[in-house]
Description:
Layout: H1 18-26, E1 56-59, E2 84-91, E3 94-103, E4 108-120, E5 126-128, E6 147-154, E7 158-164, E8 172-178, E9 182-189, E10 204-210, E11 222-223, E12 238-241, E13 252-255
Antiparallel strand pairs: 1-2, 2-3, 3-4, 4-5, 4-6, 6-7, 7-8, 8-9, 9-10, 10-11, 12-13
Amino acid sequence: xxxxxxxxxxxxxxxxxxxxxxxxxxxxxxxxxxxxxxxxxxxxxxxxxxxxxxxxxxxxxxxxxxxxxxxxxxxxxxxxxxxxxxxxxxxxxxxxxxxxxxxxxxxxxxxxxxxxxxxxxxxxxxxxxxxxxxxxxxxxxxxxxxxxxxxxxxxxxxxxxxxxxxxxxxxxxxxxxxxxxxxxxxxxxxxxxxxxxxxxxxxxxxxxxxxxxxxxxxxxxxxxxxxxxxxxxxxxxxxxxxxxxxxxxxxxxxxxxxxxxxxxxxxxxxxxxxxxx
Length: 277
């Protein structure tokens, strides 16, 4: 990943422009802004801390100084290129660990708030409702009702976004593909459904239009709202039951149809060793 800043600036100076501004505006109505911007006011960042005590880290962010990057994170070799922020913030009288990785304009960005207790463990990881360091199993055990997430992937033709900007409700998943030959959209917004409900399916929008020179007019086009004779939409029909971990983490999911075992996923498969030496 290239060494560029979050949303064109990690400091709240109103300088975000173009794509980054549009992305920030699109996710500004939830419990958290999820705008890829640091919450700690500029100039009031906590100072240097030793490994296992630092409560603030900022690394590889253009236009901002590195803070605590040499301490390492949970024993991993520090990345010297990917923009990274880790801070502790307060919201509604609760403490949250805020982590930003990457930048929307670089092709990958993730902005996460996860409930924590405002502390740092001896291995340098924030104590949080998941309580696990990166790539150490089991993963995906956080309480989703205490977590907000936004992740964007894009390469110029394909854009995918996972947006969970409300703590109490489920996420929105969307994708677009735009090439000279096709235009495709997918949108499933589950944000009106809470985690105690499995009786309501999320609204689904899926369209495909063939746009190439050899396209057969509109014969190959598709619209889920009009071109489906019968449908069985189960997206959003699942529940989460709090577990015995911190802040309800380590709970269980129950699906109206089918199943998914997060503990069986090898999360290391998603790690690119070229980007993470």
